[in-house]
Structure formats: C-alpha cells, structure tokens
Protein 1
Amino acid sequence: MPATALDPAVLAKYEPVIGLEVHVQLLTETKAFCGCANHFGSEPNTNICPVCLGLPGALPVLNEKAVEFAALAALALGCQIRERSIFARKNYFYPDLPKGYQISQYDKPIAEHGVLDVPTADGGLKRIGITRLHMEEDAGKSLHDGFPDSATRTYLDLNRCGTPLVEIVSEPDIRTPEEAFEYLTRLKEILLYTRVSDCNMEEGSLRCDANVSVRLKCAEKFGTKVEVKNVNSFRFVRAALEYEIERQIEVIEAGGRVTQESRLWNANEGRTYSMRSKEQAHDYRYFPEPDLPPLIVTEDFLQQRRVELPELPEARRARMTAEYELNPKDAATLTASREFADRFEAAARTARNPRRVANLLLSEIGGRLKALGLEQEQSPVSMAGIVLAADLLDEDKISSKQLKQLLDVCFEKGEDFAVVYEREKPRQITDSSALEAMIDEVIAANPKQVEQYRAGKKTVAGFFVGQVMRASKGQANPALLNELVAKKLDS
Ligand code: ADP
Ligand code: ZN
Ligand code: MG
C-alpha cells in the first residue's frame, strides 16, 4: 500500500482534481430504440429483438419517453437544452455489444452547461459544473461467474442492450473525495426526485467512473488524469479516490510521472489496478448515426417538462426548514425521499399545527424507531396517527406524558395510534374542584415559590402546573390546570 507511507506535509503540497462521469439507466417501460421491455432481472436473452441485437436491416426508432426523462433530468441540473441534437455511433468491439457500436451523442449532446451545488464542510455550498448530459444506449452483460464451466466460458445476457441511459459528465471542479461523495449523493437525490431512474447501484442503474489527477497547489495546469472504472458504491468512489490520490502523489514524489490510463477498483483489496493505458485507448471513430434523424426538442415539449419538474431537494429543504422550523439535520431527514416528504406534508397540512406533526415525527416517533433500529417505513404509527396525536395535544385532550405512554403501547404492540387511543383513551381530570384541591396542596407546600410569583415572577406558574401534573399522574387537563393555577396564585 503506498497510502500510509506518505508524510502529511507532503500530501499537503498537492491538490487533487476530480471529474465524474455518471451513467444512469432511465425508467422507461421499453428500450431506447425498440419496443423490448426495459426490465432488470428477466430470464437472460428474453427481452431482445432484431433492433437491439443489431441484426442487418433492423432500424432504430427513438423512444420519446427516454427523451422526456433526459430533458427532465437536464432541466433539474440547470442545463441548457439543445434544440437540435445529434445521435452518433461510438464504434468498438466487445462481445456484449453485438451491433459493434453504441448509439450515443458526441459533439452535439442534448444538454450542456449545468450546475450542481454540493454542501461543504464549513456549512456552505460549492458549485460543481456539469459539462454535458447526453443520451445513449446500454450494452449487454457478460456473465463470467456462476456456471459449471465458468472457468473456460463466458456467457452473454443481451437483455440490457439498448436500455436508455443518460451520461452526466462533471467539470473537473471537484477537489476532494468527500466532495465527490457529496456530488454523487446530491445527483442521485435529484434523479430520484425527478423519477427518471431508480438509481439502484446494485442493479447497475447508476454507475460511476471517477477521473482524478493531482497537481502542486501552486500549479496552473492540471496533472495527468487517471480514470477509475467499475466503482459500484459512493463509498467505494470515495475510497478509490483517496487511494488513487496518494498513489499518484507517491509516483510524483519518487520522481516518476503519472501514466494516463484506466484503472479498476478492487473493493476487496482496497486498491486500484491498471486496466489499459492511453496507448491502448479506444479510438471510437465517432460518426453521425445515419439511421436516426436529428433530435428536435421543441419549446412546447420543454414547457411540458418544466411543468413536470418537482420542487427539487435543495429548494424543498430550504422551504421546509422555514415552514416547520427545522434544524438542518431534521430537514434532511424529512426530505430524504420525495415520497416520504410528500406523505409527511400531505398529512401535516391537515393538522391544526403542522409544526407539531413534524416535531412528533422527528422526536417521539424518530427516537423510538432509532432505539429499535427501524426505518420510518416500518413505524407502527401512520402519518394519520401522528396527526391525530398532534391534534389531541393541541386541543389539550391529552398531556404530553399521556402521549408518550400511548406511543409506548403503539410500539410494544405494533398498533397504530388511533387504535391504541380509542381503546385506552386516557382519563383526564376535568373536574375543577378536584384540581383545585390538588393545587391548594401544592401551593401550601411551596410558600417560597408563591412569594416569587407574587413578587412578579410570573413564570413560576409553570412550576406549579408541573407539580400538579405530576401529582395527577399526567391526567390533569392541561388547559384547565393552567387556568386554575393562575387564578389561585392571583387571588
Ligand atoms: P476524455 O477525453 O479522456 O474522456 P474528458 O475531457 O472528456 O476526458 O473528461 C472526462 C472526465 O474527466 C470529465 O468528468 C472531466 O471533468 C474529467 N477530467 C478532465 N481532465 C481532468 C484532469 N486533468 N484531472 C481530473 N479530471 C479530469
Ligand atoms: Zn429490442
Ligand atoms: Mg470524454
């Protein structure tokens, strides 16, 4: 491992430069240029036809839904969308690419010049440029393992051939592995919010190649970059970049030069391996795809996409932070997915006090879930249940102590709040004379506090309310109790 050998002072002389290329499968029903099902997990070689197999004479027809998704993602990333973009053939030979070329876009991609803001360690935002977003098709899959004769044979599953993709290429604006991690996290969030992809990395719906170079901090020019391929989680991207940065610095410090090459990340060993150098790099011999006309994106089409564009994660976090008085961590929890944020807000808006719904969800429910190691989706208490609880609190029909007891039962028995509340409706003392007797007792027992109150320290009333509430085992009606305490103290 070169990593640990380096002195921090040596590391500090260098600045990493990182740019990411992300491939995203689009959630269309059918493939990019034929009517085959775009479906992960089908029996191998069942979703194929002459078009996606590249049989002679078969002609591609562009799937409009794929263009809609590409345009939606491009708008969400602040890109400029080209009115007239061109499909191109990217030629290379590989067994999982029966056509011998991939339909992609080259010098006239559908979208360019986007931005993505990522949070920084000091609480600010850093803007990362997006060079381009282009449409292309996926290749098939080579299966190297899992067959009795896998030692001598590779099998092919061509179901993935022709799956619509967008490739999103960042500017070399990223400076640390952590920033790369944040960029990917934010990008995925936006793609999920716009529902253009399921971004499932295990299934290969989102794949990332990381480009990285290092330069002396005072240098103007970028160093020679290495492309790390085959990294299938964001954490691995971060680890691969950390490894690669130290490896490159070590090469330079030893008086050598970084070779421009593609390297593979090996997660088991925690290191990268050379895959092919620049001399072996492909010449893709791009040329315009003769079987497809230019892609024309009209203003009407774009307008439709703008209508579909949801409130994006960053904006939603900002709005909800203000609306529900949240701290940054709670805002992140509530907006972690669009579906969850939608469910929360739809419920909260029906409550007397929406902030109280947020508060209960995050504290009482969140705390219990966390203690049990459960996810929000596994909560026995529904959003409607939380709204009911919040309203009961708001109307002083239950005390917060009673609420806690009811929620404990919900979590013990796996029952929703309404069920438990209906069955165990906590008793409330609403009888003034009973409460007054209790208040008299507390007043008699605490002459010092009575004096303080009468000397003008009105907040001491809270002390008496608390004492009586405790004496009543949480059963005193809070509104009535407050009123009676004030009356007694003032009399
Ligand atoms: P290539 O021609 O090798 O595909 P590109 O210029 O298209 O290279 O860039 C591919 C990716 O590499 C982009 O994300 C870009 O930001 C990044 N990149 C380009 N130059 C560098 C560099 N010197 N160091 C790190 N990343 C770089
Ligand atoms: Zn097909
Ligand atoms: Mg390139």
Protein 2
Amino acid sequence: MNNLEYQLNLLPYTRAELVNLVKNQVSEKRFKHILGVEQAAIMLAEQYGECTERASIAGLLHDYCKELPDSDFIAAIEKYHLDGNLKTWNNNIWHGMVGVYIIREQLALKDETILHAIEIHTTGAAQMSALDKILYVADYIELGRDFPGVQSAREIAEKSLDDAVAFETAHTLSYLIEQRLAIYPLTIATYNRYCAGKKQE
Ligand code: GDP
Ligand code: FE
Ligand code: FE
C-alpha cells in the first residue's frame, strides 16, 4: 500500500513528499501512529468503496499539528478569526479544530472533504461523511493502538462504520467522564446522533 501514487492533484506533493513533510513535523512515535492511521484509513476506504487517495491524505495529515506549542494555536485562532471560545480548550481539541486552518495554508490543501475529516477527527460530529467516519475510526483502530476494547472496535469496523463510530464515541465519553475532563460540544453531538440515535435538530 505504501506505493500508492497520488493521481487526483489534491495537493502539490507526491505521497513520498507528503510523508517526508509529516515526518519532519512530529516525533518518531507519532509518525508511526500516523502511518498506521493512513493504512487503516486506506483499508476502510477500500472496504466501504470510498476514495483511497483521500483516505491516505487524511490519515497522513490528521495529527500534523499535534506537537505544535499552545502559543501557535492561540496565534492561529487570532489569525484566522476563529471562535474565541476555542482558546478555553487545549491541544486535544486544537490540533484538529484549529490545526486544519494551518494545514490548509501550509500544505495548500483545498479538498474540503479531507479538511473536514481532519477538523473533526478527535470529536466526530452530528453529521459525518464516509471519509469523516473512516478517519475517526482509523485513528482508533490502527495496528499500533493497544488498549482494552481495541480488538472489539476493529471487529465492529469490519461490519459497520456507523457502529464503529458509536462504539468509539461511547468509550471516549466514558473515559472523559471518568477522568473528569471537559467534553467538547461536538463530542456530545456525536454521541447524541450515533450512540443515542437522536434525530438531528
Ligand atoms: P490522537 O491525536 O491520535 O491522540 O487521537 P485524537 O485526536 O482522537 O484524540 C486526542 C485526545 O483528545 C484523546 O486523549 C481523546 O481522549 C481526547 N478527546 C476526545 N474528545 C474530547 C473531548 O470532547 N474533550 C476533551 N477534553 N478531550 C477529548
Ligand atoms: Fe488526533
Ligand atoms: Fe491520531
């Protein structure tokens, strides 16, 4: 799969160039995770008949901003005139929700379907495209992940993307509640739609 050649001109880079850019941006451990997410995303895209090239790019870029200092995110919130409430959150939320603006500019990525998947890859959303679900789930089940429940998540992902989103969201929420961590509103929206089956407002 590592010889996937990009053909859609979604970026001004070959896959090999993109891999190198990502490699220079993160630690070795995170780089391995990112390659794992790319592979998982490509596999899910093949399985569910979605675009493997978009899955690859989304996987490679989803944590591109994960190791930036907090001050870069605060500066980006100002620069791109984003909702000031974002400043009250932290890296866990910023690397996707704010990172996507940095990625759009730095890497000249214009494909909105990929950008949206990256934006919400941590939280999910009430309305998720197939690519959104693929990235959200791939991030959770990539082969380097090792936590109680990951094997169940992998099995569920083979049968239904929506069920995999629900499984992951319920587990993440339980964890956040146990740890008394703040829950981002989009995470609750994902729970209401995919776990509780609530109709959209
Ligand atoms: P990673 O970037 O590959 O580590 O994975 P994610 O981007 O999916 O998640 C990053 C972190 O954000 C994880 O520790 C999640 O548990 C956490 N997280 C997910 N949703 C929320 C939320 O609503 N609030 C907070 N505070 N953290 C969250
Ligand atoms: Fe992430
Ligand atoms: Fe990740």
Protein 3
Amino acid sequence: MIDYSIFRTRRERFLSQLGDVAAIIPAASLVTHHADVEHSFRQDSDFWYLTGFDEPDAVALFLPYRPIGEQFVLFVNPKESQLEVWHGSRWGKEGAVEVFGADIAHSVEDFPRRIGEYLNGSDSIVFRIGKHPKVESIVLKAWAEQLDLSARKGSAPNALIAPCPFLHQLRLRKEPYEIERMRIAARISAEAHELARKKTCPGMNERQVQALIEQYFLEQGARGPAYGSIVAGGDNGCVLHYTANNAVLNDGDLLLIDAGCSLEDYYNADITRTFPVNGSFTSEQRALYEIVFSAQQAAIRAVSPGQNAEFIHQAAVRVLVEGLVDLGLLVGDIDEIIEQGNYCHLYMHRTGHWLGLDVHDVGAYRLGEYPVKLEPGMVLTVEPGLYISDRLPVPEGQPSIDECWKGIGIRIEDDVLVTLDGNEVLTTEAKSAPGEID
Ligand code: GLY
Ligand code: MN
Ligand code: MN
C-alpha cells in the first residue's frame, strides 16, 4: 500500500523552492512495442516523485504564485468506459483530487486551452525540453503567446528553466522512507542472486537463469526487473550491455549476472555477481576475481560523507591496475598507466552511479569545477570489473593478452548508502567474497 502523504510533503518542499516560478512536469506516455502493442507502462520518475500518480499522459502544474488551494493542478485522462474496458480503470478528475491531493483537476484534453491562464503571473517556467514532444509544443506555443502580449500586459515568463537544480537535488538525497524501500528492493534482488548461484550448473541456458531471477522478483511482489537483466556466461560477460541471454553455460566458464528488481513504487536495486558455473574457479579466474573483489572493497571504503564519485573510481582503478601489473597483464609505472588510461582496454567503465527511482539516478556528479560531495542519504552503486577479451586494441607499450586470460569477464556491483560516519552496503545478502562463492 503506497503512503500518499509522502508525495504531499515532497510537493510542499518543491513548491517552497520554486519562488515565483511555474513548474510543468509531464507524466510518461505509452511506448509502442510493435504494431499496435505497447510496452508495459513506466511512469516518468520526476512526475512520480511529486504525485504518486501512475497513469500515462497526465501533466502536473506547480504554481507557487497562486493562492493556497490552486497551487497543484493535475491534467489527467478523463474517465471513459469504452477505453477503460480495454485498458483498465482510470482515476479521472475526481480521483486526482480525492486520492492524489490535486487542488484542481482537468481533463488533459483541456491542457492546450488552459495552460496560458495558469502561467499568468509566473516569472519563468520550469520545464524539461527535449523529453516530452507533445507537451513541449503546447508549452512553447503558450509561452510565445504570452511573450507577444507582454508589452501590453506588463509581464510574461522570462525564461525556461530545466527542473534539474530544483528537483534532482531533492531526488538525490533520499528520505528515510525511500531508504526503507531501497532496502527492500536490495534484499529481494540479493536473494534472487543467491538463488541463481545455487541453482546454476553447466549445460543450463542463460535464459533459464534469467527466468529464475525474474520469477523470484515477481513472487516477492516486485514490479519486475529494473532494467534488462544481463545473464552472461563466459566471454559474453565481457560485453557490458549483453542482454541476448540465450547461450549455453559451459563447464569451466564464469557467469556474470547483472540484475535488480524494481518495486511497485519504482525504487530499484542494481546488483552484479560473477561466479564459476561449475562452482570452482580456474587459477586465472580466481586471480582476476580477487583483484576485482579487492578493488571493490577499496572503493566501498572510500564511500563516506565529503568524498566524491571520482575519488571512489580512483580507489578502484588503483587496485585494479596494481593487480594487473602483478599478473603481467599490464606493464610500467602504476601512476603513469593510470594517468595515460593504459588500462582502459581491460576496465572501460566508471565505478558507479547514483541509484534511486531511476537505475542511473538523477543528480549531478560535478557542479562546474567541483565534484559533488557525498552526503548522508545518497545511494550509489560501486561496480568495478575486468573484461579480458580482444575487442579493444591493446594500447601501445602494453603486452598482448595471452589466450589463457581471454573470455573472463568479471564485475561485482553493490548498492551503497552514505551514512553519517561512512556507508552501509544494502546488498550484502548476495555473497561475493571469493571463498563464499566457490
Ligand atoms: N545495470 C546497469 C548498471 O550496472 O549500471
Ligand atoms: Mn550499475
Ligand atoms: Mn548493474
């Protein structure tokens, strides 16, 4: 059961930050899958964060310069039995007011006609261009009309402002309620990884393991996978966004699984585990796994208030490069290899990202010259890896890769909450220490 009072509190904070600015936040629309079939609906996260309203095509207005009782306006699909019999019931205008706390609700068909009147009195307009083409053309037309009239009326909104500074800084710092939800997403996802590791054996298809994981998500009440699950045996693990998930798992290979669930209210987990399909590492696999594990431990230790994403990345990179030099997969001075990026054919991605309502959640990593400092309540992933294949050229001066290493792809990814005095890993229930998984 979703607690709708949290949305009211968020709206109050958002409205108080807007000043005399109108904010227009559109819902998502349905996306065509093929022919006249649509993908499952996925609400826009900004819209969800402020409304908790889970229908397509709606638009929310936040109007702090209007009197109390007229500041939160929702445009929604009207009730229409001929459509509801096909697509399910709608809350309609009455539900928008009674259940979702709108001060005023209209049919979304009236949005083009009414938006101009609601913008009267606003200094500027918070609206994200480039993401909602239908709503955008209506907003720009209404704004242009106001500019045309401004000489006689004496005012018009001056500028369009992206919602990021207002809204995404709020979303980046998770409320206690959100942290509780993310703990649940993390627990379900970690349990699914444990189940998958215990049931995996040589000869299975990647898709069978995907089915085990996603079945567990659904059985536990999650909405489903938060993103396309990656179930990648052997060399497929070196393809960062592998989602074909249709190869046989070979005795002697590793299996890399990157999967997390999304809850009913869209909070996500994002976990990667890598383990031997037959339960025992080869010596090459173990050597590389231990390096990635140590790199992840170092990176997690770096997560604490005042630190930043770059510091965490560098903590992981240093341990990876030192380990690769020890194994002879890289040669030269550690600092020089790092400075020149001469390890990027083996580790080519960043070490993490914000996590929340979006898997790659909103929030800046840098503000101008300065890295954003971690604060208690932020949640991020820590996900170093090594991918040994010949897909990328070996940088000049570095050794060619011996066949015995090729086809080993390893990533270990956990979800980490920044706390007052350090961090808490939310996903520890999925085992990852070398001795625990083989
Ligand atoms: N699962 C996507 C990522 O790890 O960023
Ligand atoms: Mn991730
Ligand atoms: Mn992931």
Protein 4
Amino acid sequence: MNVLVVNCGSSSLKYELFDMEREQSLANGICERLGTDGSKIKHERADGATFDADVQMPDHRVATGQAIEALTSDRHGVIDSLEEIGAVGHRVVHGGEEFAGSVVIDDEVEDAIERFCELAPLHNPPNLLGIRAAKQLLPKVPHVAVFDTAFHQTMPRRAFVYGLPWEMYAQHGIRRYGFHGTSHRYVSLRAGQYLQERGIPVEDQKIVTCHLGNGCSMAAVRAGKCIDTTMGYTPLEGLVMGTRCGDLDPAVVMYLAGTLGMSLEEIDQMLQKQSGLLGLSGVSNDMRDIHKAAAAGNERADLALHLFAYRVRKYIGAYAAALEGLNCVVLTGGIGENDYLQRRWCVQGLEHLGIVEDPAKNLAKYELQYTDGIADIGADDAPGYLLAIQTDEELMIARDTIEVLAAG
Ligand code: ADP
C-alpha cells in the first residue's frame, strides 16, 4: 500500500509518499508560503528528479491538490492516479492527554484535535486544515493522526506535573506534554534495536535521545518508554533552540512586563522568536552561521555555541539520574546529525556516565558515514553507546498509519 504523509505548518505543507510494502519513499515535497503571492511547490522524486514551480496556493486545500497533482503528474509523478494512495498519515502536534498513540481520524478525533487548538494555537489549527483538505480530496481512504505528544504520555506524574497549585493541572491541564515525540520514538526504537543486537535487552535499556534541530528537545527513555522530556506545556521549555530561550525563571516574565513595560505579545515574541542562538549571538538562528561567526572571533557566538552544548550536557546528567543509569545517548536532528563539534561538546566530560566520544569516528567533518541511518561514534571500550541517528518522522508516521489500520 502507498501511504501519503502530510505535515502542515501555518504557511506550509510538507508531503511524502511511501510504498509501504518496501518501506521506501517514492517522492516528497513542500508547498511553501501558502496564502502569499510568493507561494511555491518544490517536489522531488526518489530518483533525484526535481520540479519547482511558483503556483498560487491561497490555502492548504489548494496546496494538497498541488501535492497530489505533482505525485500523479505524467512528467514528475510516481503514481498514475489518486487511487494508488491507500491511506493518509497526518502529523498532529497536540493530542493532549487523550491520545497516547496514533488513531484513525473520525469526527470525534477531529473534534478533539480542534479542542487542543487551545493548547497548541500555532500548530493544531494548520494540522486540522491539512486533515480537512486531504479528507476532501481523498474521501475514500482512511486518514490517521500521529501526535507529537503521544510518545511522552508514558511519563510518570512526578515528571509531568509542575510545582503549581494542583487546580492548574486538574482544572486547566497545565502540565508538561512534550513534543517531537515521533522523532524521539523513531530514534529510540532504532537505538533500542542496536543495543539489543549488542546484548542489552529492552528491559535494561536506558537511553537519552537528543533531537537538536531548529527546535531542540531531549527525552529519557527507559525500556522503550518515555519517562521524561525537556519540552513542557509548550515547546518553549528546556534546551536553548534556534530562536527559543528554553528554561527560564518565570519571574523574568514578571520583570519584563512590570518593570520594562513590555506587553504579553512582545514578551512572547521575544521568548519564541528573538532568543536562543539568534538572541545570544545576534548573528543567526542557524548553527552553521554561529560556528562561522565564532571562528571569526565573535565572542557572543562562541558563548552561544557553548551555552547550547552545556544545556544538553546538563540534561544528560539529569536524565541519567532519572533513568537510574545510562547506556546510550542518541544525537539527531539537523545539528545532531551534521555538527561534529556540537556532538563532541554535548557529551564532553561525561566519561563518568560511561559516554565517551571517539574523535576518530566523530571527526568526519560534516560527512559522518551512516550505515542504515546509524553512526556509532562512541569509544569502543566505553560502557555506554554514543550514536548519531538520522531521524525519519515521516517514515514513522507512515508505519503508524499502516499499523493502526492493520489493528482495525
Ligand atoms: P527543523 O527543526 O526545522 O527540522 P533541522 O533538523 O533541519 O531543523 O535542523 C536545523 C539546524 O541544523 C540548523 O541550526 C542548522 O544550522 C543545523 N545544521 C544543518 N546542517 C548542519 C551542518 N552541516 N553543520 C552544523 N549544523 C547544521
């Protein structure tokens, strides 16, 4: 069966079509800047052939139509018609406490996703638009929702409840939810298989996964289940990210409002869009630019690099305590997969936890050699494993889609 995976942002729609008999991607693409004059589609087939075009796409429905047209086109397509799409898997950011796994989208599920727009006002509304658009264009096939929060639903209360008055959780749902769950699940599964092949059974596995991209988060995974994660009520908590601040004393917000007279919108904008690597360095939110600036002597950029890695290290230590041990650290996402210096700094000085980088294996500057998506960059004689793993959230969504349908 072919499964179409759809991931909608506020002004973009990413898609990928998989042949799930062979678990192979056939084509993928992105429709960008929806609703503006400059909307574009970029489409790439698995054989490397590409197609880019400026197309008027006022909304997600038109974008979904364009994606299907690209997939079925005589020139750039990979299938003959819509009929060859057997199911659609949708990335949905927030599933609240209701969804600990993926589900077929019926009216009730759609209502729940709509309810959780309150919890994820930037993400769930475009996800819902994508679902409704795809359902209109592909009404005969099942649609499955795969939630970013689901993997984290196994956290114990002590990890997800904040130290606020109880009613804040009980009545208002204010708690740690965690995000990037599909990526953490994918790489922890891959790492788990890797450990199992090396004699560590699932029940003994204590893995810390670090998803380091534009958004960054970590998860502590014990025996295949998430027991803690760094993102919280929203994706703002935890690590320092491209433009988000990560952990912060909430009293800073009071100071910004009370003493500096900033409005809530201004504070929100600052913490979400003007902080992190960008705010610290004043250069960029892109790790590659920060490295260049630091190498050219920019001290703030240098601080941003090391503050970023320090926060990751600190959480690895915290999670080793939460897991009562540690036998593997996984690095993934654009930075984790590509940045050998950050990979080094993020685990520097963790020998006492059994995690030791092998510089010779990690050194392959920007060109780490992955075997089936995994590069083992740990020292051979270290007790723990250090792995860089190429994440594949889309494949995970396609797999879930098949599994949910098979389960009936
Ligand atoms: P997103 O979270 O948007 O999916 P990615 O996972 O693609 O983002 O990660 C983007 C980050 O990865 C950026 O900070 C970018 O600089 C960084 N990155 C990508 N390639 C490299 C590289 N070769 N070296 C260092 N950083 C890289």
